[in-house]
Amino acid sequence: MKAITIIQPWATLIAIGEKRFETRSWATKHRGEIAIHAGKKIDLEACMREPIKSTLAKNGYTINSLPTGAILAIAELNDCLKSVDTWTDGYELEFRKLIYYPEYEFGDFTPGRYAWELINIRCLLDPIQAKGQQGLWNWEYDGQGGTGE
C-alpha cells in the first residue's frame, strides 16, 4: 500500500477526519488507498495556533499526546487538484472546488500548490509503528491493528 509521511499535527488532523486535503508542492497520479504516517517531527508552533489547537483538544489531543513514527489512518486518495485562486473566505481549486474555514487553516493552499483530496478516512484504533520516508512510499500492511470509524 502507498503511504505518505506527514508531520504532526497535520497527520492527526487527517486521522480524526478534520483535514480532508493534504497540500503539497507536487502532484501525484496515485489514486486509491493510502496510509497516513505521522512523522517523528511535531510543529509545536502550529499546535498552539487556532483553529488547530481547539480542533485537537475537542478530539482529546494535546501536543504531548500526538502519536509519532506510526501509521495513524488509512484513506483513499480520491483526487489531486491544483490550487488556482484565493479570495476573502477561502481558496479555489481546479474545477471550482472551494475550500472554506477551518479546512484552509490546515494546509498551504497557495495558488500553484496541490491539494490531495482524501476520502473514506479510517482512523486506526492503535497506531502502527513504522519508519517513514519522503515522498510516496510502500508500506507493507500485515492486517494487524483494527480501524475505527
From TrEMBL:
Report the protein name in the record.
ASCH domain-containing protein
**Pfam families (alphabetical):** ASCH
List, for all copies, the residue spans of the domain called ASCH.
Answer: 5-92
- Span of the signal peptide: none
**Source organism superkingdom:** Bacteria
